[in-house]
Amino acid sequence: MNQCYGCATCESADKPLEGFIKDLPFETSHHRVEGQSTKCGFGLQGVCCRLCSNGPCRITPESPRGICGATADTIVARNFLRAVASGSGCYIHVVENTARNVMDVARRKGKIKGVNTLNRLAETFGIEEQDVHLRAEKVADAVLTDLYLPEHEKMKLVKKLAYAPRYENWEKLGILPGGAKSEVCHGVVKCSTNLNSDPVDMLKDCLKLGISTGIYGLTLTNLLNDVVLGEPEIRMAPVGLRVIDPDYINIMITGHQHSMFTYLQERLTDEDVVKKAQAAGAKGFKLVGCTCVGQDLQLRGAHYEEIFDGHAGNNYTSEAILATGAIDAVISEFNCTLPGIEPICDSLHIKQLCIDSVAKKANAELEEFDFENREQVTEKIIDKIVKSYTERRPHVELRLMDEHGYDNTLTGVSEGSLKEFLGGNWKPLVDLIVSGDIKGVAGVVGCSNLTAGGHDVLTVELTKELIARDIIVLTAGCSSGGIENCGLMTPEAAKYAGPKLRAVCEKLGIPPVLNFGPCLAIGRLEIVATELAETIGVDLPQLPLVLSAAQWLEEQALADGCFGLALGLPLHLGLPPFVTGSGTAVKVLTEDMKELTGGQVIINPDAKQSAEILEQIILEKRAALQI
Amino acid sequence: MRRIIVEYEKCDGCKNCSVACMQAHRKTPGTVYDLNLTDPENESRNFIYQADDGTYRPVFCRHCDEPECVMSCMSGALKKDADSGLVTYDEKRCASCFMCVMNCPYGVLKPDRVTNTKVIKCDFCSQDGGEPNCVKSCPKGAIHVEEV
Amino acid sequence: MRHVIIGTGAAGITAAAEIRKQDKDAEILMISSDSQVHSRCMLHKYLSHERTAGELDFTEEGFFEKNNISVVNGKAAAIDTEMKTVFLESGDEIAYNRLLIATGADSVIPPVGDLRKASNVFGLRHLSDAQKIDAMAEKAQNILIIGAGFVGLDAAYGLLERRKKVTVVEMATRILPLQLDEHGAKAYQELFEKEGVTFRLGRRVQDAVCGPDGQIHSVELDSGESVPCDMIIVAAGVRPSAGFLENSGIKADRGIEVTSRMETSVKDVYAAGDVTGLSGIWPNAMKQGKTAALNMCGVKQIAGADTEYTDTFCAKNTMNFFGLVTLCLGALIPEEGDEVLTEENKRIYRRAILRDGKVRGILLQGDISNSGIWQYIIKNEINVSGKEKKLFRLTFADFFGVGERGKYVWTF
Q: For residues A93 and A86, what is the distance between their CA atoms, to the nearest angstrom?
């Protein structure tokens, strides 16, 4: 008998990874899929209500209403709004911390690495300030002021940041958000016990939360991070488990808040700190990218090539990364930090540290990020990690996977770097779209899950189907991690594209799938889309542009999705978001939305069929634009 | 013959078996996601009841050795299949007298909810390879198929 | 071994199938007075034209060939139990080793006026009756039905579907008097009336005179009212079809007397079904047929089944008219000292009669889902004391037990 934990792991689009996980002596999420394969039908449809002590109530033909009288429509809408409010809260937490960090850095006259971005924001916000630090402070303050507004006061920056035709649409629908934090509160109140029972009203609130999530949680988080951490630059970088170098003290980072690592990532390359590593027998420190914050580091990697080795994998690769044995500590500040890494960390004596209490893991030590005392806290963290390295390395077996992943993966793509790459304006891309060399644009975004065919299976298959149809794919989120580890972001992947797109890629030396980085970068895609629409002179729903959160995972993704719908974009999901028990919700999301915002939800778990549907939509939009 | 063995101690009353049964016998194509849970047409052939002590009792057709339902059928719609041992029901032959409903000693059978013309009865998912979907759907392993 | 079965109804067919199951080699011969096997419980569907005669067959396709059963058409005229021979009306003689009499019952036409001699008066018991009614219904418009029991209402239902004008005369003050209480009967009466039936309840036909054409064109009720009619269906009861047994030595009173093994007073002669007068319902006829067959084959004990007819409970019925279903079991009329529990809403009516903690009778109307437990509860006199509050919510879960091979067993 071998040492494998179990034989039935779920499929992965990343076959070498699938084999690696299958052979592991630890239980991973991939092993647990089988044991959880029996799903509750009521839960799947979103018609189980646990909002009061009369519950759980479930909808059946004998009992079409809950005890309180709630119909399937009400139960589904309440559950959905709850999820969206919660997801929005997550992103608002992220942008709040990011803006506070910019504020702290600015007040202490810290380094402003992304002056261009700062100037762009200041101009958009209407802030005229000569001093760069004061300018940064005022920009951060404007964001925080909006976030903290009450629900009944509309946020000021929405009009400045949103594309004008969209703003008009939202104003008409009455879905302009008040203070983003208050909107989350309003949302959870609305869906509580025996309050709102109007499914359409609650779904409109979801759109409102989508707008505040998108503009603040996504778009602004990216830009504020660029201000202090530097703007993305297009370059080639390695990805996959190959990035792990066992000669270093390796720190796996998980979360969504790059700004929290600002000080640490700089300190780790300081000579005195490197010496600590060397004294312990290592060459120095390395941050190993995992989840979205890893994507963020990769995106801005041009600014700190020494400390960051590359992105190893997405959320459901984290267990495998740890299982290599070469990770000495995990620092987490947000999701997607799987609870399932805990027993593996225990078993491999990997130190777990949390720097934001919202992501406090059960067996992690909490060393809350503290700007004031960042120096002491960082020293403490570094010492703990060095101790962990010293204690564990002599005993722990390494299980490296040097061949996994790719060396020449294109990264650093953003709304800014891409425009620069195209020569400073969008015309070349618009021309390619008009000529049909690029049939359309698909944002394959969001998470990775294990149930839509397996780990990244639908995401990767759909991406292949789309590029084969000459549709260029832009990614953001854990989908990026899966797609890049499958090689679709290397220039060689042009061979999977349709003849026209392939020719474009080969001419420019780029892959047919461009990685914008973390899920937050859905905000960057929105900027690209808006600027394209502006260039052509149309509204967003008219663009030959589609979104797919093929393997959406969590509540944040649903809030993102609502942003996509508010933008008026077609949004494909591989699995339904627990709403199919309500005929009204399904109709509003898949049909009526076309009239409301121009968006629509498409649910299909099959890659080929989904690609056909999305291609059809793109063709219809092209036809309407007469191109 | 094969029979669904019930270990009621393991049942948590989630009714996933009932949902699976409705899904397996729905008339329209589709997945469990779009199974209409408010449509009275969709009926489960199995029943989860709560006993007085709060625990659950799954009541499933036994495909009895000496089926009382067959012994009451005046149309020939219900039969005990000599080979498989299953008690089969032919909706087309049924005369809707519901003597079988009266005669089932465990109260498993019922008239269909919408028209009161058919009998709702376990068919062991024979159209679906003969592996009952209820069994596949039970998260607790409270029901399993055994050769008896 | 030659088994001869007279009658191809529920008891006869069940017996033939069981004999074949027990004895692959035995010779089985059935004597049928009908043109084909049919379920008398479905005759109304023939009248309504929902089913053809062929669709009334309740045996599986190729039943006789598959089971190697031969059938002789004819009507038994006499039996010589010494010679072990059945004489048919045609004069043919059929010898047997073991004989099962399963001839069922015939309609009784009361001796009122010219009812027995008129050519437009029929019972509704056999396919041949239904065929005659059907033929006459081509022309007849006004139908008079005597008796508002099961058969009478079946006939009314079938002819309503043919858009006939139906009048039903019933001696009792409610319809279905043997199956339902006043309240339950009213629900059906209203449904039938909505469909156009006229009821004359608490009334008897006093006189009926044939016209020169040999048909009765109107009857006179005890109220003096004269009801015009083109055809009369008499559904006023049945009598075991045992007339041909005179002088056979087989003891019969109203029906043929049988032991619990379905043996008659004469060796090697058995009887089952309505001809015994034990019960008038299908499930019991099947069970009697099966019991007779086992004993005819000499099987005295068998795993999982009775070889004696002990489950004699027959106060049970279900009905389904116009989609309104009803189940009635056990006592119908409460006696002094009985406790009566009722429940009613716009969809259902439920009534239980209890005595000393036991359910004596139950009536469920509108929803009979999962009601199979009630027969068991009533016939086994299970004590339900303490459960009165949830009486109508009782399910098998309240008596749940699992026995060998995953079978359910009752525990109480």
A: 11
